[in-house]
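Quick one, tokens below:
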């Protein structure tokens, strides 16, 4: 009887194991096809820091990312060094990838290759088809070249990249229904990330890896049939930077819709006012992320009642077709009038507002009744739209967005303005500045980018990332990289490291110390401030905390596990991949988050810190006490944005400490004078890094808390 039971148990386990085994999913295979930029030329420690390697680290074991980049190669078959002739190409096909990122075209801009440019589209389509033949379900994603800040017009030449290579690549994407990612604008304002003016550094490779990561993990929905109403008259379909643009009439009004290659969950969309296609980089970036971009003509209506009615009808049409009930509003210049007049009337339908040099007071423009130039013909039309027949009517008119600030602020939707600080057409002192002040006074949410020395034009930002991130956050689509475990690509000698030593050398040194030392007293985890303690770190050259460590830690076995530049995501990677728990520390100090200030919102940083604390608690035994400090004080002046962010973060993370295993402390009082300013004898002028005397204050604090929690 017992034997039979054992047999049944064995058979049951066998069946379960077979069932589990059958459901194990093979890693998704990603091929990175390209030239020297993909290969990792000019990237410090390319085996670890080329963008395919960084992408692999971020994606984890569910994916297999392979680098098939070869330096100097062309997409053109008749080019001087065709990619087609390489072993890497053959291996890429044999790999049978599920996702193919293709980054070719830069070398095709050289003088000797330009003569074959007529073959570019055909050759690109052939390349795409060759991968589809190996895997009919392969996801093909074309990467636009990064800019080339070169002066040699016979070599890689940016003018050819922008005028030929990029438009041809977008045309190929449209014809083959391939996805396309705009890397060009991600680098156009960051030449420092291309040290030789062509190849991204390891930090530039991080920019690419992040963008690819967003694309790989992006969820999608089935394409929507937006234009199914019988009241729609389709006029034509054309190529909009690689996407299908449909022109149509709805109730006699000219309208447009551009659909993404893959729709994002929730079907987000943008309703753009006026100046269709002008400075389109934000719209293109949102199309990449699954947004629809729509337009309904309200020209010469200046945001008046008829314009609002048109938008009401258009909104109903597109939301009934399945697009989100909350729309992103985008308005340039006079488009600000319709954007805000419609938003004020329909606050529950607005996800956010992006306004660019917006007109908010018709008397400023087109009226020209202030410091602006005005436009006589447009002012006459404006007065007819609002039935302003006399000067008395004009002086009493309250139909502009500038007159509706309280109601707009109470709408609850976030707003972002991008304006030229020297705008003489739509003066900011008559439009955005009083609007911004009023919105904030009534508790509204608004961020403004003032472009110093810039007039009314150009609109937008060359690199639209700040605008795109604002919209993604407002619609719940932003990836919080503070939560994504990733190695850093830092390599700078200015980081306090020996020349030629990068982040990986520092991470390996710390890991070796944790493996060699057992039963230590203190493990200090953090960024450059923590790195400043020094210790037995062979590749750290700058340690302003050495004297303080001798004073307060001399009888302790301790390891300094800080690395310059580290953000929460880097510490997450180190904790999860490293052997920190092998040192079995009595106390682990977590001082983290300050390097996230530039890239992340308060909420994103808090989530990153929360995750670091969670992983630390899982990695270390319950006998390890965690001295949890969050970001150390920052911002010399207590009224700076940095200090405000610091205070908001600590107001939330104070709840993470239980004072049993996790001991939370805010150290602001230790480093401040009686007025709340950070002490300049303790802090450097950047308001971030400690001076030697600052380390003494911090060292005394750590030692006091160590003594208290290890009793």
């Amino acid at each position: 009887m017992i034997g039979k039971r054992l047999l049944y148990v064995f058979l049951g386990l066998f069946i379960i194991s077979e069932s589990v085994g059958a459901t194990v999913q093979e890693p998704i295979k990603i091929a990175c096809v390209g030239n020297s930029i993909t290969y990792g030329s000019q990237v410090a420690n390319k085996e670890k820091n080329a963008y395919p390697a960084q992408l692999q680290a971020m994606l984890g074991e569910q994916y297999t990312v392979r680098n098939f980049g070869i330096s100097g190669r062309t997409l053109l078959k008749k080019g001087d060094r065709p990619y087609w002739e390489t072993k890497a190409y053959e291996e890429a096909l044999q790999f049978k990838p599920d996702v193919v990122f293709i980054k070719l075209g830069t070398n095709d801009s050289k003088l000797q290759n330009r003569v074959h440019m007529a073959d570019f589209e055909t050759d690109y389509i052939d390349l795409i088809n060759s991968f589809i033949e190996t895997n009919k379900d392969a996801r093909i994603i074309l990467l636009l070249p990064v800019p080339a800040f070169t002066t040699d017009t016979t070599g890689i030449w940016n003018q050819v990249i922008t005028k030929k290579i990029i438009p041809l690549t977008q045309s190929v994407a449209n014809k083959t229904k391939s996805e396309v990612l705009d890397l060009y604008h991600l680098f156009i304002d960051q030449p420092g990330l291309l040290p030789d003016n062509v190849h991204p550094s390891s930090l530039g490779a991080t920019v690419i890896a992040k963008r690819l990561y967003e694309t790989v993990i992006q969820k999608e929905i089935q394409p929507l049939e937006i234009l199914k109403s019988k009241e729609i008259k389709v006029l034509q379909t054309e190529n909009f930077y690689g996407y299908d643009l449909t022109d149509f009439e709805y109730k006699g009004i000219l309208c447009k819709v551009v659909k993404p290659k893959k729709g994002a969950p929730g079907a987000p969309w943008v309703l753009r006012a006026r100046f269709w296609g002008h400075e389109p980089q934000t719209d293109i970036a949102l199309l990449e992320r699954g947004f629809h971009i729509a337009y309904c003509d309200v020209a010469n209506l200046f945001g008046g009642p008829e314009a609002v009615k048109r938008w009401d009808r258009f909104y109903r049409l597109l939301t009934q077709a399945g697009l989100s009930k909350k729309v992103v509003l985008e308005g340039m210049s006079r488009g600000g009038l319709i954007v805000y007049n419609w938003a004020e009337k329909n606050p529950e339908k607005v996800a956010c507002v992006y306004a660019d040099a917006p007109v908010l007071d018709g008397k400023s423009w087109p009226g020209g009744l202030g410091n602006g130039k005005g436009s006589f013909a447009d002012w006459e039309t404006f007065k007819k739209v609002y039935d302003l027949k006399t000067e008395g009517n004009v002086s009493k008119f309250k139909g502009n967005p500038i007159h509706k600030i309280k109601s707009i602020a109470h709408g609850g939707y976030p707003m972002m303005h991008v304006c030229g600080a020297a705008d003489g057409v739509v003066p900011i002192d008559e439009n955005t500045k009083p609007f911004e002040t009023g919105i904030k006074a009534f508790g509204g949410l608004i961020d403004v980018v003032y472009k110093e020395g810039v007039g009314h034009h150009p609109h937008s930002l060359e690199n639209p990332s700040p605008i795109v991130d604002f919209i993604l956050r407002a619609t719940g689509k932003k990836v919080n990289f503070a939560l994504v475990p990733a190695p850093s690509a830092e390599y700078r000698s200015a980081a306090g490291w020996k020349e030629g030593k990068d982040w990986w050398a520092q991470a390996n040194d710390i890991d070796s110390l944790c493996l060699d030392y057992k039963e230590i007293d203190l493990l200090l985890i953090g960024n450059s401030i923590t790195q400043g303690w020094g210790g037995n770190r062979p590749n750290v050259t700058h340690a302003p905390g050495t004297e303080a460590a001798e004073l307060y830690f001399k009888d302790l076995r301790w390891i300094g596990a800080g690395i310059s530049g580290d953000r929460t995501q880097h510490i997450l990677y180190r904790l999860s991949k490293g052997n920190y728990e092998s040192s079995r520390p009595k106390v682990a100090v977590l001082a983290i988050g300050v390097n996230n200030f530039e890239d992340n919102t308060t909420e994103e940083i808090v989530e990153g810190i929360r995750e670091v604390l969670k992983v630390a608690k899982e990695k270390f035994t319950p006998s390890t006490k965690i001295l949890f400090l969050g970001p150390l004080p920052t911002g010399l002046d207590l009224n700076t944005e940095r200090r405000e962010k610091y205070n908001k973060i600590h107001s939330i993370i104070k709840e993470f400490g239980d004072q049993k295993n996790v001991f939370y402390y805010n150290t602001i009082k230790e480093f401040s004078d009686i007025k709340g300013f950070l002490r300049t004898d303790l802090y450097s002028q950047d308001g971030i890094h400690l001076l030697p005397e600052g380390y003494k204050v911090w060292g005394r604090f750590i030692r006091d808390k160590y003594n208290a929690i290890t009793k």
